[in-house]
Amino acid sequence: MKKKIGLFFGTFNPVHVGHLILANHLLQYSELKEIWFVVTPHNPLKQKSSLLNDQYRYDLVWNLCEDYPGLKPSDVEFHLPQPNYTVSTLAHLEEKYPDYDFSLIMGEDNLKSFPKWKNYEVILERHEILVYPRYSEGVVEKIFEDHPKIIRIDAPRIEITSTFIRKAIKEGKDVRPLLPSKVWRYIDEMNFYR
Asked: Please, are residues 101 and 4 in contact by the beta-carbon 8 Å criterion?
């Protein structure tokens, strides 16, 4: 039986308690044995200019994962051709780790834009997608509603965003409750987002 790994893709700019709560929930209430935070250097659907340096974002994720043995930081996409496409990353991981069964973790907001992803049909054919609730505009396409590879997770609905945190830091607000303490300390020491 293959070891089940959840892949949580994101720019994590910065990673925050919402990501941690969700990842921990999935470790406790699903068949996943580990969750890898795949730090994305450049999402083809986002502007790159607002991103903190790749290595700094990886370090933030590393700080988050340090106290949780089932959570792992991953820089796999740093070493693949840019821009990254999830389908290519998955093919690379399948080849490198043939004994692992990879599932994608995504918010319902991403499921709504999933048809825009490169070769999304291939992803859906080869991998389960664990979808957590998010408030967002738009609708989920009918083909995804009862799809056997799309599993809706009854996780807490967390509406903290990295965008909100960056803006709050820039405005001098106290965001410590929104960030794991090691992540906050690193952001504070490095003067990020100010």
From this structure: yes
H-type helices in 50-107, by residue range?
A: 54-65, 86-96
Q: How open is the CA angle 191-185-189, to the nearest 5 degrees?
A: 30
Cα gap 42→154, rounded to integer Å: 29
- Least confident stretch, 42-56, 120-134, 156-170, 179-193: 42-56
Tokens at residue 17, please? 């308690």
Q: How far is the C-alpha of 70 from the C-alpha of 5, rounded, in Å?
A: 10
Any idea what the Cα angle at residue 76 is, between residues 49 and 78, rounded to 5°?
35
For residue 68, the tally of other CB atoms under 10 A from its CB is 14
Query: Is 95 exposed, middle or buried, given 0-12, 13-18 or 19+ CB atoms closer than 10 A?
Result: exposed
Query: How many domains, in total, are found in the chain?
Result: 1
Look up the domain containing 178 and give its range.
3-190
Convert the pLDDT of each residue in 3-39 to its tens digit: 999 999 999 999 999 999 999 999 999 999 999 999 9
pTM of this structure: 0.92
Q: What CATH number is given to the structural domain containing 103?
A: 3.40.50.620
